[in-house]
Specification:
The chain is of the alpha/beta class. Helices cover 47% and strands 8% of the residues. Strands 5-4-3-7-6-8 form a six-stranded parallel β-sheet, sandwiched between helices. β4, α8 and β5 form a beta-alpha-beta unit. It is globular.
């Protein structure tokens, strides 16, 4: 295996396949004759750290060591065949590969790592090309007078430059004020056992967006992460996305205990799409709870069961009253959609304005626009297209605008 890697490294450095010798010309002797040329061939030896990885991950377990050796051979065969496999794999990547059962799952995970590696290489190449381009730019024309002032980005400017760190400090200060005077909101992180690794990573990514959207809002929430597992995949990925989250000054409350130990039980309301009670208006005396879960594999109503076990109130957003959903669209929203909706609802009280954060791909309007675009290249008439749409929806000749107004009227009558 080591010899094969060495041969491949030589071929990559010299695509023609010819080994260029290093020529060392000896000094002439006293009788003006020389001994000739000495050809020396060199090959670059790649360091093999497979034994260190096996010793660190397996801890002397023969079954794990056998499995890891097979995985290393499988990845090396993929590289030899020219398939997508990353060149550098860390210990956490090998550990994740050992947890995947099928070859298809491992292939997809290696493809993801390969794309991530190539993306970083492309970004580095673009930065290097940009740096060379700036260095090769022609200097500006000579000044007419020696004491002329040159204006520009790199020279004298009429405007005060506000740097990224200043904006970051300002946003963090707004969030710190919310911890003192803002309304609290709870993110329930107790669903990590029901998610696979990629779902936990996706949940951490959504939580990163939640923190960013919350702190740039004019009236942010005081976010509390409850039921957090410090050594779990979710928290590790969140610390990777936000490196400063471990600092004491970071404006985010992280708790390993339950929300029942922090807030009064009678003020808690769990937002779940599986209950029957609708949320008609925002209550400023209520602490809303949002479940942090990505349910691409597990579609069970876990949040409903959790709220029933804890004995707290439940509510769901009135999505059907204000929106016309596309056929087959799921009404489960991500936490990076739920928190901005509640932020706008708290500030304005307008449901139509708050629900603008819902992805447009879930709505009937997007489907109608897509069908209209299809009509331009097909022979179907408009009547046939809308007839097919009415078959899957309950439009029945009522426009979306009228339906929204009727739903608003019924909602206000319920109050």
């Amino acid at each position: 295996m080591h010899c094969i890697r060495s041969i491949i490294s030589i071929l990559k450095c010299n695509p023609t396949g010819r080994i260029k010798p290093k020529i060392n010309i000896l000094n002439y002797t006293n009788n003006n004759s020389y001994t000739g040329y000495i050809y020396r061939c060199y090959s670059k030896i790649n360091e093999d750290h497979s034994d260190d990885i096996v010793n660190e991950l397996c801890n002397g377990d023969p079954e794990k060591e056998k499995m890891l050796r097979i995985l290393m051979l499988e990845v090396e065969v993929m590289r030899q065949d020219g398939r997508c496999a990353p060149n550098n794999l860390q210990n956490k990547h090998w550990q994740q590969l050992m947890q995947l059962e099928t070859r298809n799952q491992r292939t997809k995970y290696l493809l993801y790592l390969w794309k991530t590696e190539k993306s970083k290489e492309n970004q580095k190449a673009k930065k290097e090309a940009r740096r060379k381009e700036l260095e090769e730019m022609k200097p500006e024309a000579n000044k007419e007078y020696s004491d002329d002032i040159t204006y520009g980005i790199c020279d004298t400017s009429l405007f005060l430059r506000i740097r990224d760190q200043s904006i970051n400090n300002f946003d963090n200060y707004r969030t710190l004020q919310a911890q003192l005077h803002g309304l609290p909101i709870v993110i329930d992180c107790s669903y990590e056992d029901y998610m696979v690794y990629r779902e936990a990573v996706n949940a951490a990514k959504q939580m990163t967006f939640v923190f960013g959207d919350n702190r740039i809002h004019r009236d942010p929430f005081d976010i509390h992460l409850c039921n957090v597992t410090r050594e779990g995949s979710f928290m590790k990925q969140l610390e990777k996305n936000i490196p400063s989250i471990k600092e004491s000054w970071f404006p985010l409350n992280i708790h390993t205990k339950s929300y029942l130990d922090i807030f009064p039980k009678n003020k808690l309301v769990y937002l779940t799409p599986h209950c029957r009670e609708e949320l008609t208006k925002f209550d400023y005396d209520t602490v809303y709870i949002i479940g942090c879960m990505v349910d691409k594999v597990n579609n069970e109503p876990l949040s409903l069961a959790k709220a029933k076990r804890d004995g707290i109130k439940m509510a769901r957003l009135p999505l059907d009253r204000y929106l016309e959903w596309a056929p087959g669209a799921k009404k489960n929203l991500n936490i990076n959609h739920m928190v901005p909706i509640l932020l706008d609802l708290k500030s304005t009280g307008n449901w139509e304005f708050a629900l603008r954060h819902i992805p447009r791909r879930k709505l009937m309007e997007t489907k109608i626009l897509a069908m209209q675009n299809i009509l331009k290249n097909t022979r179907l008439s408009n009547d046939e297209v809308f007839k097919n749409l009415k078959r899957y929806s309950n439009l029945k000749g009522v426009s979306l605008k009228n339906r929204r107004s009727n739903s608003r009227k019924s909602l206000y009558d319920d109050e």
